[in-house]
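Marked as duplicate of an earlier ticket. Keeping the data here for the record.
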Amino acid sequence: MRIVLLGPPGAGKGTQAAELAARFGVADISTGEIFRAHVAEGTPLGRAAREYMDRGDLVPDRVVIAMVMARLAEPDCETGFVLDGFPRTVAQAEALDQRLAALGTPLDAALAFEITEGELLQRLVGRAAQLHRSDDGEQTIRHRLEVFAIKTRPLVDYYRQRGLLVPVDAIGGVDEVTGRILDGLATLGASRS
């Protein structure tokens, strides 16, 4: 199973990625964690990413693609993955498609998490306080949501046109949202049969 999760920061992608990875026995890949690890280790890619992350801007495609492709080459990804936070642009989606096509392992689905801005702000402000994250201040949060709307929303159309999009109502308890995802995946699978 190879799935990408699309949606604004705070929509619950990380929580659901862990749930789905455990359920399907595949790798849970969070680009946020990859970025933070590179930043903490002070790698060249990490230093390049940090200045963008601190402003709430998207890290340039070339940096993101290099980090994610290196991660996808690790052995735990051979059986599949749940990608949280990648792709965020159509160029990244195309790079992922090319990589997966070369391996003969196409993407199975793109889950689009749908949530209101009010719910997002409440979740992100709470997360910032709980985790002391510098990238979750209210001004940065609003900027991240604007960047998401401009740059990432075209991915919904990209995956819809490819027949891989599964819209997900992301408001509710973890089990409730997981249930919606599984129903959506089953419906998508049935439509291909």
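See parent ticket for discussion. The radius of gyration is 16 Å.
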